[in-house]
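Shape matters. Shown next:

___
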Amino acid sequence: MINTTFTYHQLLPNGLLICNLLPEHANRLEALQRIVFPSLAEDELILAKHYLHHYKIFAEGQFVILDGDEVVGMTTTMRCNFDFDNHHHTFKETIAGGWMYNHEPDGQWLYGLDVGVHPNYRGKGLARELYRARQTLALHLGLKGQLTVGLMNGFGAVSNQITAQEYYQQLLAGERSDPTLGPQLKIGFKPLDLIKDYVNDPSCGNYGVLLQLDIHTII
């Protein structure tokens, strides 16, 4: 059964449109995945068949950015009840091989599985707009807020010089910036812990950082 209790339709000043995923976007979303995450393992990419399944089980939680007919941005979300005391998990486990079977219709957190913007459209604040769309949904559903794992995409380049823990501590102390985590922290996400072997991606040394965004944060 397709859940359509919430729809999002936001036309930005630059003419781009943020809205919910439709089945017609699936193939273009798979192509965008390969552009946005070029070093991610093949079996961790979200494919067209997966997007179609996400649409069936949680349509309102999937967002795209459109430039005309072109899909230039996306974010995939699910609902979950999260165990903060036993929080180690992997992306592949969480998204259930792409199928998102771990979606809990009554979950109290909106879990953001990914955010992606085409390289030609970066620097325009579009990731923030996707987080805003997610926050709007979380508010509509009466959830506690957003959870996600941000990839330490700057770590791979220096992994032969410092450890992941040192990189993470420098990031927390404001001594180092990261191309992915930096913008997420500026939005208001709170870092909770470093997660080893979250993904199979050398750009981040396979590390991610568990992040939490309170429902009252204004994006």
Summary: The longest strand covers residues 70-80. The chain is about 25% helix and 25% strand. The chain has one domain: 9-214.
